[in-house]
Structure formats: structure tokens, C-alpha cells
Amino acid sequence: MQADDFERVRALYAAVRDTNRPEAYDRWRLLDNPVAFPPAMLAMDGDRCAGLYLLWPVRLQLGSEVVLGAQSVDTMTHPDYRNQGMFAALARECLALAAERGFQALYGFPNPLSYPGFVRRLNWDHTGDIAQWVRIIRPSGLARVPRALAPLADRLAGWLPAGIPGDVEVRPGPVDPDILEGLRQEWRARKDLCRVSRDADWMTWRYAPDSQMDYEWLTAWRGGQAVAAVAWGLRGAAWGEQGDGRAKLMETLGADSLGLQAAIATAIGRAAASGAWMIETMTNVEPVTAILRRLAFVSHRKAPFIVRGLSAACLGGNIHHHPSWRIVGGDVDTF
Question: Where do the domains of the chain lie, and which CATH numbers do they carry?
């Protein structure tokens, strides 16, 4: 894939999904990544894009080493070209291209249809699962809730724990870069873990307005000091009918559990005020999952977490050891 294939890729997505994403979102996602241009392979029939396999670049902190990595994200085959083995062929070519460009480690969350191809045919390792956490804000948004019971269900949901301690103040708005850097230091402290590296350029890009997710930062303050920060988002107006009312909790920074609890609780409230019927995240960070449980999140399902090395070099962390990984919502392309 080259930059001038942009419209062809969008046409493929529209053919596969019967809809399309906002153009600004695709430009942000595919063309503006500050880490690298995405390694991707296309199957072309003349000027028509018949298939795509794409990796989303990130920097990975593996132990004390930061390497070029990527998340496997878009695997698409045009309806007219299915059942020809295109997925495996494109994936092999894309992995070779990524290795040539210096990418050393990959991760992903395959859906049930693509999982066998990744694990059985492409030598990816299923190390374990990452939980998706869901907090219902307005039960009437669930299709299975009877219409007659929806108002009562919504009132009952309003009685779920709020969890904002009295000595913590939560402020919405952009976070001072020095504060974010301090909170990220706690994130980097462990040298035996594997995670997505959160440098300033990546954070600025990940939560930029061009993402079309209306992201908002919330900072928790206690005793005059910023002790935690979270980022949450909801699809903006550009998504039209695809704005499905599912808010996303993306970042949870800071070691102060009461501060994090207050910030996440505030995100729930602000998501409700924005019309969301639920808020969700994906994470395996144990101090965070304990807070999620206190705030009435439930583990809705588990997504398989797969990894693949692209380098013969000895990496700074063991990507095949599932307990070494720390994943949060911002590390996941979509969920």
C-alpha cells in the first residue's frame, strides 16, 4: 500500500461493510501515524482493490527496550474475491515487508473468523485473553430490554456506585504535558513488562480531534497534586448513524487508586450526559480492573491476544509470556 491507494482502500471497506468511516478518520488512522507509515499489502484486480492486510504501527516497550512494533488490524477481502486464500497470502507478504522495514514484534485481537488463519497458518502465538469490560449506563439502549421496562431499568442503573471520594477533585480538559509525563513514569517503572510505549507524540496523535472520537481528558487532583488521569471518547457527529452510543475508556494513568476511581467515575457521568448508553474498555491491568468492578463494570467477554516476533534478535521482554503484557483501551484499534 502507498499513500495514493487511500481511496481504493476506502472503496474496499465500503464494499465489505456496506458503509464507510469518516474520511478524516481514515486519513488520521492510515496516513498520519507518527510512528511509521503502516505496512500493508493490497490484492489488486486492475484498479480495483480486492483485498487488504494492514499493520498499525506502535512503539513497544519490551522490558527496558523500545522497539518498532505494530498491531494487526485490517483484514478484508472483497465479497467478489473470497475463498481464494487471499488472507494468508497477503499476510505473509505484509509480515515480510514489515520485517524488512525494521518491525520486530506484533500483536493483535483476531475475530473468530480470522483466528484459525493467524494461529494455524501464520505462526502467531495465542498467549492468553484480554477482558472487555462493560458498564451499562442506560439499559434502555439494550435491544433485549422490553420497552415497557426501559424507564424503570434506566432509573435503577442510576443507583449504581458513583465512587467519587470527597477529597478528590476531577477536572476536565487538556492535561499539562509535564503532568502526563509524570503519570507515564509510573507506567514505565516496571522493566519486566511488555506494553505499548506512550511517548508524547503518540499520545497527541492517538487522541487528536482527527480521530473523530471526541476524546476528553479528566485529571484527578488531591491535595493540590495531579494523581491520575483518564481519557474517554465517543464517536463524533461525523460518524452519523454509526455513532452507536458506546463510549470508550481509553487511558488510565496514575498509581493513586482513589484518584483513578474518581476519574473513571467522572467519565461514566460525562458519557451519560453525552448520550452514551454504555461505556466499555479492554484491559488486564489488575489495579484498574479492581476499580472497574467497584464501579459496576462487568467482564463481558474475552478477546484472544496473539503475538508474533519478526526478528531473530533477543528482545528486551518475552512477548510470548502473557502475564508480562499490560493492555489498556488505547492499545486496541477497535473493540
Answer: 3-130 (3.40.630.30), 132-303+327-331 (3.40.630.30)
